[in-house]
């Protein structure tokens, strides 16, 4: 799927469909200050007036946070970016792209990291909302985003990137993980490999599951059986990846050792490169995600490259569409990946 | 200089020395709601009362932002981190370390990037303060931090990292740029080099200036002249670095080409590695900053390593000292660097 054309917009309004204090005042037939008192629980309002204002608030679905927004003229817009891991170089170009789009729209970008934890993601997202970000770009860690529904209803636009939202409908910008992984394995098969291993991230992560699915599809498409020992999913920390990779390369048990590997992301690839560098025999490697200096290694690493900057830019652009009032149904944009043969993926099977 | 011992603390108070609305109410002899009306410019306060409250505000140095802070019980503390470049992998472990310390203190971390621009740094810092961060860790891009004085006076603790604050006194955690660069160049001299080039960052950046100073000190210490064409300072973008490096390696003009290079940071090193890989002759290289996969390149790269995670951790620890009320004079912590010989720095001069 490629990027779809711009749909028609229902109407243009800054910050989406949020009712303002002015709307409440107009509907209740009172002044802005009166609404402010009611909203802030200040004294000095007759019960009758208070009831009229409350009715208007309920009817319009007005939310308290808006009061400060309306009162504070000339406030700089800001958007939040929730990353999954501050230390992963993959997100660096993505973050920078989101920042550039934000800057083009005169908005500040504030980031936070969920440290790959769903609870922390929620805490951080709600904290950013409380600090009045106008919108969010989220690389989700959690498996249930219904906690965002009240915020989205109140007008905080949210776009998911790299992985889709879980259990809610929201804009998302993704890469073609399934097809990219499938093509990477097909490339190894085309170079003669029959015993191919897959070292991936935790299986509940959307991208890891899609890449596993792609691996399986390529093997099945070539009529090749997959031994269970050829699949190792788990955290990307070097110790785990190293242990699983060494085990897969040693073989033992009924299955013969693999002659080629597909690695599920840049963090895993960087560890596996080290394991392979110490091996006496040559094992072919295709890594999902490009990474810095991949072409200067020995051998240079064949990769399935995403475009993290483009992911970030598209996500931020979708976000500002929403902030400008676009109210069409949530969209999913899927960007293609690109196989870059550099050497490691073209090594033939070693007898 | 190494990390100094803990000094005595004057007194412990959450959020430093900020007066609260309760303090103002007590001093003026009025209720909290009355102070709130005066602070928010709401009607319903007699001129006499208003004057008493304003006098109390002035006498105590009360700042408006505090009202929400006092009223909102149980609010999660948050600290801001202002980076200089979201895409530089050097800052990834630093950011993660700050985040971990913040989490240990039950605080959220929100980041922003100045994109290497002093005006943007200021805009972002003030925006974070307006969003009620309790403290800031700043990698400064600007050359004048006096804009922070009102915020620091109001109790927003600020610690600078990687580079010191400019024109104000504040806690700072730095690496030994001067000594590290000097030792790197001394290492090249010890391996026989006499014509050594330095490719560094923009000269107004503190770390770049210190590393240049270290380069000069090592050359002078060995009685070696420095030709002007052997120093190339400027932005770290690959095109500039490549052009300057190629020029320095080609020689031409009165000076002979260099036989070794010191590169000023990881961004520059990564570009120079590519330039050297294409050269027919071998040129020795010592890079300031370690970087991922440096040991897997051909030749493996000799570096002067900092410890970005430790820089981040120390800065965050200093920040929470201040937030806990430590009121001693600003401290400067300087962490040592470490020369890691891996191959590229031990290549002898090629005739």
UniProtKB/TrEMBL annotation, chains A, B:
Record-linked SMART domains: HTH_LACI
Domain HTH lacI-type stretches: 19-73
Pfam families in the record: LacI, Peripla_BP_3
Coiled coil: none
Gene3D superfamilies: 3.40.50.2300, lambda repressor-like DNA-binding domains
UniProt KW DNA-binding keyword: yes
InterPro entries, A to Z: HTH_LacI (IPR000843), LacI/GalR-like_sensor (IPR046335), Lambda_DNA-bd_dom_sf (IPR010982), Peripla_BP_I (IPR028082)
A single GO molecular function term of this UniProt record: DNA-binding transcription factor activity
Key word Transferase present: no
Key words, A-Z: DNA-binding, Transcription, Transcription regulation
Name of protein: LacI family transcriptional regulator
């Amino acid at each position: 799927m490629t990027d779809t054309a711009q749909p028609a917009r229902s109407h243009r309004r800054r910050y989406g469909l949020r009712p303002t204090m002015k709307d409440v005042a107009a509907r209740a037939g009172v002044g802005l200050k009166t609404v402010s008192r009611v909203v802030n629980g200040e004294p000095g309002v007759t019960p009758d007036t208070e009831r009229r204002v409350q009715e208007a608030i309920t009817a319009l679905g007005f939310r308290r946070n808006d009061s400060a927004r309306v009162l504070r003229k000339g406030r700089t817009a800001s958007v939040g970016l929730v990353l999954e891991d501050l230390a992963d170089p993959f997100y660096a170009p993505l973050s920078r792209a989101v920042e550039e789009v934000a800057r083009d729209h005169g908005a500040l970008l504030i980031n936070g990291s969920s440290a790959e934890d769903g609870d922390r993601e929620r805490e951080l997202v709600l904290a950013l909302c409380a600090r009045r970000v106008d919108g969010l770009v989220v690389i989700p860690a959690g498996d249930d985003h219904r906690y965002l529904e009240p915020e989205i209803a109140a007008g905080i636009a949210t776009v998911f990137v790299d992985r889709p939202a879980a259990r809610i409908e929201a804009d998302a910008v993704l890469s073609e993980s399934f097809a990219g992984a499938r093509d990477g394995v097909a490339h190894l098969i085309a170079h003669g490999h029959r015993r191919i291993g897959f070292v991936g991230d935790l299986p509940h992560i959307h991208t890891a599951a899609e890449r596993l699915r792609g691996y399986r599809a390529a093997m099945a498409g070539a009529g090749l059986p997959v031994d269970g020992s050829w699949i190792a999913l788990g955290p990307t920390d070097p110790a785990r990846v190293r242990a699983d990779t060494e085990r897969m390369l040693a073989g033992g048990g009924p299955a013969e050792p693999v002659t080629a590997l597909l690695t599920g992301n840049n963090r895993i690839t960087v560890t596996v490169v080290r394991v392979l560098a110490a091996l006496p025999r040559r094992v072919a490697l295709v890594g999902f995600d490009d990474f810095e200096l991949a072409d200067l290694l020995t051998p240079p690493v064949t990769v399935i490259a995403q475009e993290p900057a483009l992911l970030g830019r598209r996500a931020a652009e979708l976000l500002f569409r929403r902030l400008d009032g676009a109210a069409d149904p949530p969209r999913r944009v899927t960007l293609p990946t690109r196989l870059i043969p550099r050497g490691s993926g073209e090594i033939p099977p070693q007898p």
